[in-house]
Amino acid sequence: MNSQHLHYLKAMDIDVWVRKDRPQQDAPLVAVDHQVAVVAQPNDTALQLPPGLSWDQLANTVRHCVHCELHQTRKQTVFGVGNLRAEWMIIGEAPGADEDLQGEPFVGRAGQLLNAMLQAMGFPREQVYIANLLKCRTPHNRDPKPDEVARCASYLTRQIEMINPRIILCLGGIAAQNLLNTDSAIGQLRGHVHFLGEKRRPVVVTYHPAHLLRSPSDKTKAWQDLQLALATYAQTEPKPA
Ligand code: URA
User: Fold this and answer.
1) Which of 161, 164, 179, 186 has the fewest other C-beta atoms within 10 Å?
2) What digits encode the pLDDT tens for the residues 110-120?
């Protein structure tokens, strides 16, 4: 562990115990759980996006989306932000008040903690791609309704296909349950590697940063999740140049 990592772990308020009698390994060896998973299945309400959309066309489609009632209460849509050639994709739940105002995911207090978590891993915000399950804020930040998730799912599915990340880090139980199409609680979903879709893209689940702000004692477990993600990433094939 280098001094920069220690700096960011401190920023995350995580106590780090470093044994002085032997060198530290940056990434642990992990057992990989071969659970098969898929993005929410298309159904009657899912939007059928035309094949071959460019990134800008997809972003524009989202900008003008009126496919669910959330368009009536949002200030603006929040498509996503980051490096279009990213190897890491970070998936949250839905924009909050700050994101609804600024049109960018994770710009509030939870976003600052997410930035610290990404820095601690050595993949700063600018290097990754960050998106949400829902592109619109829910009224009073209530949980997304299944119908809203189903109507919005095609956007995230297409974003994942186009970014083609080596690994997905999924933040929080709601994003994870919908992405992985499961009812399991976050306590069961974290600590394993899941595989998404036919490409069997690895997904690691951790606590949502907003949860970590409310329950800082879970930051140590979150750091273990990030180490699992790093170790998993190291086992994936590099993206074609
Ligand atoms: N929480 C999320 O899940 N996403 C955001 O963009 C902001 C807060």
Assistant:
1) 161
2) 999 999 999 99
Token readout for 163 is: 């970014």
Question: What's the confidence (pLDDT) of residue 31?
Answer: 41
pLDDT tens-digit series, residues 147-187: 999 999 999 999 999 999 999 999 999 999 999 999 999 99
Which tokens is 144 given?
């997304």
Atom of ligand 1 nearest to the CA of 93: 3
Q: Determine whether the shortest distance from the Cβ of 144 to ligand 1 is under 6 A.
A: no
Select from 1.10.3720.10, 3.40.50.720, 3.40.470.10, 4.10.480.10 the CATH code of 32-40+54-234.
3.40.470.10
- Nearest residue by C-alpha to atom 6 in ligand 1: 105
Euclidean distance between CA atoms 19 and 219, whole angstroms: 20
